[in-house]
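Limitations
The structure tokens in this dataset are predictions for the assembled complex, not deposited experimental models. Users should treat interface geometry with appropriate caution, especially where small molecules or nucleic acid strands are included. An illustrative entry is reproduced here so readers can see what is and is not provided.
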Amino acid sequence: MTDEPLDPPPAAAPWPGSASCGLFVFGFVVTALIGMGLAFWAAVTGNVVLVPVGFFAPILVYGIGSAIVFGPRIVRHMREASRNAPSPESVAAVAHGEGVELGTKVAAPWEDVAEVNPTVHDAGTTPGKVLAYRLAQVGMTPGCRFGCAVAVAIFWNAILSSFVIDAFNKWNRAGQIPWLDMLFLTPFVLVGLLMIGTAFFFGVRWFVSTLTGQVAVEVSAHPMLPGDVVRIHIAQTGTFRLVRVAVLLVCTEEATYIAGTSKSTAKKEVAKHPLVDPGANPDGDGLPLTTDSTIPTGLMHSFDAPNNKIKWVLRVTARVMGFSFSNDYGVTVNPR
Amino acid sequence: MSRVGRRPRVNPFSTRFVQPGAIPFRFPTFPSPDGLAALVLRLGETRGWGQIIGPHGSGKSTLLAALLPVLSDWRVCHIKLNTTDRRLLPEVFDPPKPGALLVIDGFEQLGFLSRWRVKRHCRKHGCGLLVTAHTSMGLPDLYRTAVTPRAAAEVVAELAPESSTDFAGFLDGFDIPARLRAHHGSLREVLFELYDRWEAGM
Amino acid sequence: MIRVEEPDIRIELATEAFAPSGELAGVFVIAGGPPPDARSVEFSVMWRTSGKGTEDIGVAHYQAWKPGDGTLASMPNPNTFTVTLPNTPWSYDGTLVKIHWLARVRVRYGPEGDTREVVQDAEFALTPSGRV
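Predicted assembly:
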């Protein structure tokens, strides 16, 4: 038995070319524009029923066609990638032998810890696969954002379309442009277009996040203590590779107040501490990433009261296919 | 300087200084005790039925907070509703004692049926009903709140007197009437804005 | 003698800052003793929030003296105290959320139907360094 250094894990399967990805996105944009044009044409010709059909049909056809053409290739890539991916044991070994050991004692349950640190509540973790604790993602998922944006855009434009169609019908009947109606409707139409654009933007981000897959963040110690060195491991499951990965420790203050008859919560990010700098990693700035970081000293501990909170998250930012990526993972900072 | 472990500075526009009851209600034309007495008289004339209506942040809850302590002739049951708490407890519909006055802050949070039920209960048992809302709820008008620029300036001066060295120059460039207009007459929003301004300046 | 002025309460703390899990030491005195018609004297060590949100409070220590149970008559005045402070929350001067620690004495007095009270606070810092 020798003390030779472990071999690095074998390289993952090559990612799909960025040109193919760019072409796919370009096709999606063109299809969406065609859909908008068809919807507008249907509205102008008075075929109200065809408006949603004209808008969504090209996107649907493009999606199905892409799945038929590119689907088998993507599946082949993913199968190869999973066969060639480093085994969990080798990743743990490269991370200097640290991993989730059987029989490791879990930190004291909250009933005990609450007595020691009142008002400091656990952010909630699950056992990790590589390191001891897997952090939970917080915040609205890209799918939820897209769904909300689509719902709002449909609601607004559905109501607005009846007025727009009515204005165009007046135009057809009278042969003259009803300037007053058009001027009145213009701001509303602009807002409607902005909502469609926003829904489209979130749709693309949702699509990208689907291909990015789940991004898991694990840490070696939780709750975190200021001044301690913590190992952070980040990995993703999807096909589209995240690059320029950075990790920040972000503090947010939340204050809930009653404004008349409604309850509102004001939030403000008051501190951002970079833990992982994408430029500083000699092995590259992509995933999987395992690194040691020092939690800064002098931090305020997590605080949880009914109306006032101090929350900490680990924020993972990156770039994927030219888009920015950002996910937050809840952590607890204990007092030292 | 680190904020951790430091005794906090006191923001004069913190919740504890601006919440209903913390700032005395200002009547535009007469001093507060006379104004409150006039409202108590008017409430008596309508047998305890009345509504305080006004836009957001115009002082409805503040006026109610000032009025409740002087309603000594009534047995007051005070309920505060908001968008997250719209339920009426079943005890509200128990037969009331003589001279009872049901006060509901945020009456419009209830649905049409609940509002009708409350009115019917109060009418049937002869007890008073005093509500606050943003629009008319069909009760006799007790008072319509609206914040004047002068009242807003007085409130701000009371919270952050310019004569004090702590607040010298604090309001430079801050046009209170313009900010009140920008917030559609909501003094609450103007005070929130001043909270942020104080924090940014410190 | 009919007392017309409200009770004069003074609180003095050993220092302005204390460390988590440390001992808060101090003394409070009611000048001239509690009023003859005192209903209760309460001493508490607590934290409260301030800022933009609705205020929250937490009590680390609470003690009350009342005439009904005979404790008010035997209450030392001046009254020295030593209270073990919890680990958290630390004093904090945030933007939306601020956390204050204070020692509070509340005296309730007055005839039936005319209850009055006087509250006196002495603020201190709960700081990890134990120093201001």
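Some entries come with short summary sentences. For this one: Chain B has one domain: 13-82+96-154+173-202.
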